[in-house]
Every structure is written in structure tokens, then in C-alpha cells.
Amino acid sequence: MKRHSTGKKFHRIKGLKKADPNAIISQTPKQIEDFIENLKSQGSLIKKVKYAYFQTKNGLKYPGLIATEPIVPNDTLVTLPRQTLLTTKQAFESPLKPIFLEYPQFFSPQFHSKWEYHQILAFLLYEYQRGAESKWYHMIVNFPKDVDYAVYWNTEDLELLKDDNIIKSARKNLVELLVTFQTLRYITDKFPNLFKPGVVTMDNTIWIHTSIVTRCFGGQGLKYVTMVPFCELFNHECADVCYDLEQQDNSTRYNYEFMTKKLVHGQHNDDELSITSSENSQLSEDDMSDSEFVSGEYNQYIEFDFDEFSQNSIRNFEDNMSFMQKTQIRNEELIKMRKEFNIKMNIQKDVFQLAIDCKAFLFQNIDFGDNFSIFFLEQIFYKLDTLIQQYFSADKSSYEVREEINKIKNHCNLYQNYWYSFQNQILKRPIQQKYNIFAQKIGKRPKRNIFSMEQILSQPVDRNCDYYTPIFKQENFKNLLMRTRDPFEKGAQVYFCYSRLSNRKMLLKYGMALEYNKYDSAFLRVEFFKYIKNKVGLWIIHRFKLNKLKRFKLKHIIPPYEFIVFCKLIYWNSNVHSVDTIFKIQDLQLERKALSLALEILLEQNSKFKETVEDLEQQLLDKSLGYHQYFAVVYRLEKLRIYRRNIYLINIIIIVLDKMMNGVPFEQASERTEYDFDFYETNRYILRKYFDQLKWAIYQSK
């Protein structure tokens, strides 16, 4: 069966891998020619690609690599011997080693998360001052001087993105770089024998730091942050081009079958790249925080105070006993009454403890700071509170309450299991084991790691501790290879997939954004307070200072499953619905209500955009736009396209569901709708898992 994935559809729209008629093949700049010759003299091989210039839709030029002849799967385009690569370990074992040993607060992983970047930054500045004597001279002189990623954009250009959160993140990154520069200059000033005056300047630091951030490699078998010469000339796209490591015995990580797509173990979705330039970066793609947390107290909910209740009960009992003693009731009767009272108190304590244990289980095992579990928790807490009230007011027996609490515990266990499967299998957020610790999001809040120079260097150092030897391991591979699973026509631009990068991350790291980027995302932020039904839910939110908004990541390649679950839990009733209806399609009426709410919220948020997809598409043709303006338009355009895509997907689901609930067979119900346009096959491919569940639910209901 032919696949119609989003990636394939976007490739066709963009003409990816096809010859580019607007490419400009001119004489390769002499500095780059010298660089290539230097690499070849060290045993490097470069095949089938050449330096060229390409153009955006409005004619802006940018450099890249063009295919000089047809490229087929399993081609190796670049071979670089290990000695041509610059790694953190090489930087450490350089003449700068005394500096690294003296200031581990800045250069070791025990103190600073950016330690590798700091070491390579210091090393490249040191090598830069050596000029042509440096082994790395050709790589350094080819670092571009036109620094242009969003961290350095001026305020006016950043505001073109119309996204306060990305502006906030860019400013945060700039402050971090300023602290890095101040700290590095302070340290290098202590070593005038190693660094000449005027080398560690702000301009040089920005230049070298930018080259490291935008050009370094990591993961895929590389043990350290690595600068890979020449390969930085590949531009980024969602193409299946990767790097591989050739071992001393000539074996590689990826075999022939894999590279030619004849056999792909475990790959069922073409929208998941088989290979990326880094390890799976799940949950780190958008590492900026735009969270606002609830503050203040909520006093309208009062937990049942068993201690106060028991003290009042004991006091009342003792008062009654005193009165009875005065009425000359026999001691045997009084002893019997005291015994019965103690038994009753113990039973009450046991029942109350059962309810408390059930709440504790939820706190310890459910991530109630996620995007939807608060709705489950509020119902369970409300149910437990109601049972306690009913028991202590004698409306229910201890047996009845115990039975119901046991049922609730079973529901909680089921919810945990379904939640775990949903995170792993549907959302693809790998969780190695089920949560067994307090797991709400207050413990996951991003750390404020912007230190001043004084804060960094004032951290105490144990001079007897070896901060480096344990982290440096020997790399034994022979060559780094740039390989492709994708074919490229002669005259096509040849791309490399850096990683699963959203446009947000690309702007912050590379200063560019991609049209039809299948890994792009847009955030839907929902004020969820108005959907909380019980006071206990609001109390939990305030008690643990949860996020004010629920933030859902909308994507091109999958339906908004998490958002649908959120909407479903708003209508879910623990007295009516089973737990599996939350994460599976079981109750069709509940599903329909959730989809309607999801569509309503999406349309409401989409209406707040002041631009349209069509307007922005026209703006991309405007030749007066500069690079910043052009990529800002792409950023805004893709956000609107993602919103539109998700609105269309929800509409399609509703139409198909309504038809099937009215008895129309799936094949007929799932025919092209007014929301499919020319994405019909792709939409059905994206929705296939959802529709499989829907068909099963319809079958079960008959």
C-alpha cells in the first residue's frame, strides 16, 4: 500500500530532492577551496556535492551544497577521518588544560551544563590567535562573520515574530552569552601567557560561539560535542541524510538494507525520521518555558480533619461517661460502652486512612501537573470526600465505604496504566518505568540557570577531586561518514537533517525557519480553570502551584490526541463512564462532545490571529523583505497552517463519526470531505489509528 505521510506530501509540495532551476553555481570561494584541499590532504573524500547558492521565494540568496550528479540511497557523500574532527576531549588535552583544571566551575559538567561549549569556545579563540600556524586555521577562517540567528536580532525584528515567548527566550539566551563572555574574559586575563590582549573580545566571542552553536554535532555515537569540518555547509531540511561512524573493521552503524529502505525495523511511520543528527530529543525540542504558575491560597475548600473529629468525639464521650457515672450506671456497662467506643473509633480511623491512602497513591503515581489529569483527580478526591462525609454522618456503613474505596483504587490503577500507555505509545514520550514518586509538574519546572560571573566562580571547589578523567572516554571509530537514504536529482540542493527541530528552535539556533516543516509545532494555550467543577480541584491547583494554562503542542503529523483527552475529561463522569473511555474511543457520545469542544476552542484561538495563510503566502514573494522579515513571515505562516490543519482534522473526524453513528459504513463515511482539499490521502494516513479505534467502537456498540 502506498504511503501518503505528511513528510512525503510536504516533499512533493516543496520539490525537495528535485533539481532547483534557480540554483546559482559559481566559482567556489578560494577560502573554501583551500579548506577542501586541506581536508583532502588529510584523507577526506567529498563526492557528488559542490558549493552553490540558492534562493528564497523572494530572491534572497544563501549558500549550500548542490548535487553534481544523481545521488542514490546508501551514497556516502563525505568521508572525514577522525583526526579532522575537533572534540571537547581534544580541547581539554591542549595547552589550555591548566585553565580547565583551575576553573572547573566553568569548564566541568559537575558545575555547568554548557561546559563542553565553554571548553571549545576557549580553545577556538586560542587557536584563532595563532593564525595560519593553527591546525584548525582553515575551519576557523571559514566561520561566517554575518551572525544572524534570533538571539542577536534587534527588538524590532524580533517583534515581527509576534510571539512574546520566543522573544523572551532569545533575550534569556543573550543574557547567558553575556555572562559566558564576562566569565571567560575574567579567566583568560589570568593567563596572559596563553591569550594575547584583544583576543577574547565580545565580537570574537559572539562570532566563535555562534559558529559552535550552529555547527557542532552530537549524539549518534559521538561521545562529545564535535565540530565537523565541511559538513556545516549542508543546510537543514526534513531529508533522510545522516552521519554515521565507520569503525576500524569498516563496519558502520547503519547497514545496506537500512540505508536503502529495504528493511526498516520498527519503522511504521514515514513521519518519524529513521535517523537524526542527535539522540532522541523528546521533550527538549522546545526547551524554553512560558509557564506562569498559580500563586496565592484557596480557602473555599476544607479537608475533613479526622484529628479534630476524633478529639471532639472523645471529648463528647468522656462528658457522657461522666454524666452516666453520676447516674449510678454499673461499671460493667461503662466498660462495655468504652470498649465499643474504642472499636468504633478504630474502625473510623481505618476507613479514613483508606481514603487518605487512596489520595496518597494519586499524589505519588499520577502526574497531576500534566495537561489533563487534574480533571480525573478532582473527581476522585470529590468522591472520596463525599464517601467520608457519608460515613461519618452514618449515611453509609463501613462495609459500603470500604467497597467503594476499593473500586476507586482499582480505577486509579487503571488510570495509571492507561496514562502510562498513552504517554509511551500515542504521544511517543518514552517513560522507562511507571511513576513511583511524587510526579506533578512542580518538580519539573525549568531551573533558572542564568548565573552571574560571580555566582559561577564562587562555587566551592574540592582541589582533591578529579572533575574530568571519569568523563573522557576514548573514541575509536575511523571515519565520520555523511550518508543518505534519500535520492537527489542532479542539480538539487542536498540537505542534512540536523534533528527534529521546530521553527521556534531553528530561529533561536540558526536564524531561519522552514516552510512545510513536518516537525514544526504551534502551542495552544487553554485557560482550564473554568472547566474545573469541584472546589477540591481548585484547591489542588493552588496547593501545588500548577500552571495557569494548559499548553498543547499542535503538529502537522498527528491529530491533537492529548487535547482530545483533555476535552474528554471535562465531560467524563466517574459515576457514568469507565476509565478506559478517557484514553480510548468507547463511549461515542462522550467522544462527540469532546470533539465539539476541541473544535470550539481551536476556532476561538484561531480567530485571534490577525493574518491569514493566504496573506502570508503572498508576503513571501515580496522582494523588499530582508532575511529577518522573510523568516518571520515563514514562522507566522507555519503557525497558522498548523492551526488550520488541526481544525480541519477535527472537522473530518466529526463528519466521519456522525455518519458512522447514523449507520453509514466506514468506507463511505470516510470519503473526501470539504475539509480535505488536496490532502485527502495524507489526512486519512494521519487519522488511520484514530479511525481504527472508531471502527472497533462502532462494532462493539452493535
UniProtKB/TrEMBL annotation:
Annotated CDD domains: SET_LSMT
Signal peptide: none
Membrane-spanning ranges: none
Keyword flag Coiled coil: yes
InterPro entries per the UniProt record, alphabetical: SETD3_SETD6_MTase
Alphabetically ordered keywords of this record: Coiled coil
Parts forming coiled coils: 585-619
Keyword Coiled coil: yes
GO cellular component, one term: nucleus
A GO molecular-function descriptor: protein-lysine N-methyltransferase activity
Name of protein: SET domain-containing protein
